[in-house]
Amino acid sequence: MDLKDKIKQRSNEIYPEVVNYRRHLHSNPELSYHEEKTAAFVSARLTELGIAHTKNIGGFGVVGIIEGKNPQSKIRALRADMDALPIVEANDVSYKSTNPGVMHACGHDVHTSSLLGAAQILNELKDEWEGTIKLVFQPAEEKLPGGASLMIKDGVLKNPEVKFMHGQHVMPQIPAGKVGFRSGLYMASTDELYVTVKGKGGHGAMPQYNIDPVLITSHIIVALQQIVSRVASPIMPTVLSFGKVIANGATNVIPDEVYLEGTFRTLDEKWRNEAHIRMKQMAEDLAKAMGGICEFEIRKGYPFLYNDEALTQKNKSLAHEYLGHENVIDLDIWMAAEDFAYYSQVVPSCFYRLGTRNEARGITSSVHTPTFDIEEEALKVGVGLLAFIGAN
Fold first, then answer.
1. Which of 70, 119, 186, 206 is at a distance of 20 to 30 A from 302, taking alpha carbons?
2. SS3 category, 78
C-alpha cells in the first residue's frame, strides 16, 4: 500500500473521531482573541498524540512540530484558524452553539478538526515522508489586526524556518468531495472605513437654518463610487461598500451628525494606497464645500492573498492524484479577504477551498450566515488531502 492509500485509509478510519472534534468545537465557539478553551482543546489532543507543541503564540495560537525523515530537508506549515463569529445560530442540530450570540459560521471548526486529523495521520506515518511539518492553529482570523500577523511577529515562521505554507478553507458553493484552486492573485486586501459627517441639526421644516449632514452624507456615498468606476483601472478589481449608516434623526428632525462604516477592497497595493488618499480627500472636501465637516478614518487591514504559482500547481496535481481530476475545480478571484494573506506575503503559500455543499440535504447556506453548516463527509477530504499535501 503506497502513502496515498494509507492516508486515505486512515482518514476514513478516524472520520468519526474528527466529526466529534468538529461538533465539540462547533458547540463551544469563541470569538477572536478569546479562544482560550479552543486552544486548550487543541493542546490536549496534540498531547494525546504525542506531538510536541508550543502554546500562546500570537495570542492563543498553538504550534505543533512533526519531524519526518531528514527533518531539515524540507520545512513546511499547515494552518487552521480557530475563532468564531458574533452570530446567533439558527440551525436546529445536536451540536448547535451553546455560547449565545457566538457561532462557527465560517467553518473554522472544520479547519481545526481537519488539521487535528491530518496531524494524527502525519504523526503515525512520519517514517514515510521527508522533512518537518509545523501545525499552525491560529487565533483571530476574523478581526483586525489578524492572528496571522501576530503569529508571524511571534516567530511562527522561524525556528525552524518555514519554506512553504498551506491552508484550506470551506466553500459552500462547492459540493462536498471536491476542492478548488487558483494560482496567483486570489483574495482581496481589506480596509475598514469609519466616517463621521458633522453638520448642524434642527427642524426638518426649516432647512435654511441647518447644515444637513444626511444630505452631505448621501452626496459623499455617491461621489466615492466614482473612485471605483472612474479612477480605478477597469482591469483591477475594486470594491467600495458601506454597510452601516446611522443618522438618528426623525421624520422632522435633522441630526447633527451621521455615522458610516464601510469596506474597501482591491488586489494591488499601490492602487490601494492611492485610493485611500483619494477617498479621504474627496469626502472631506465635499463636506467642506457643503458647509459641514467629515472625519474619515481608514483602518488598514489584511493585504491581498497571493497563491504561489509553482506551489499551487504542485498541490493541484496532488489533489488530482488524491481525488481524481473530476473533483478538482478552478476558482476565480474572490473579493473576500483572509489573514492567511500575511503568510503569502512572506513565504510561498497555497490557500485552497474545501467543498462542503450538499443540496440534497439542504446544506447550501453561505458562510457568515446563521444557517451555515457543512456536509460532514467533507471532513474525509479535509483531513486526507491536507495530510497528503503535507506529506509531499
1. 119
2. strand
d(CA 286, CA 276): 16
Which residues make beta-bridge pairs with 91? none
Q: 258: which strand partners?
A: 197
* Structural domain count of the chain: 2
Half-sphere exposure (CA, 13 Å, Cβ side) for 297? 7
- Residue 272 sits in the same domain as residue 179: no
Regarding whether 153 and 12 lie in a shared domain, the answer is: yes
**Strands (DSSP E) found in 42-92:** 52-57, 61-67, 75-81
What pairs with residue 350 in β-bridges?
Answer: 166
Catalytic residue among 35, 81, 109, 141: 141
Considering the domain architecture, whether residues 328 and 212 belong to the same structural domain is answered as no
Cell for 36? 482560550
- Active-site option among 30, 35, 81, 83: 83
Which residues, including other chains, have CB under 8 Å from residue 387's CB and lie 6 or more apart? Answer: 7, 10, 11, 117, 118, 121, 122
Active-site residue, 141 included: yes
The conformational region for residue 95 under phi > 0 = left, psi -120 to 50 = alpha, else beta, is alpha
Q: What is the DSSP letter of 363?
A: B
Q: 320-331 pLDDT, tens per residue?
A: 999 999 999 999
Rg over CA atoms, the chain = 23
| Strands 257-266 and 238-246, sheet pairing | antiparallel
CATH number of the domain where residue 288 is located: 3.30.70.360
| CA 24 from centre of chain | 21
Q: Is the domain of 230 the same as that of 288?
A: yes
Same domain, 177 and 238: no
Q: What is the pLDDT of residues 35-93, one digit of tens each?
A: 999 999 999 999 999 999 999 999 999 999 999 999 989 999 999 999 999 999 999 99
Strand 132-138 relative to strand 75-81: parallel, antiparallel, unpaired? parallel
Give residue 177's identity as a one-letter amino acid code.
G
Q: Which domain holds residue 368?
A: 3-187+304-390
Same domain for 259 and 373: no
Boundary (domain end) residue, out of 242, 277, 300: 300
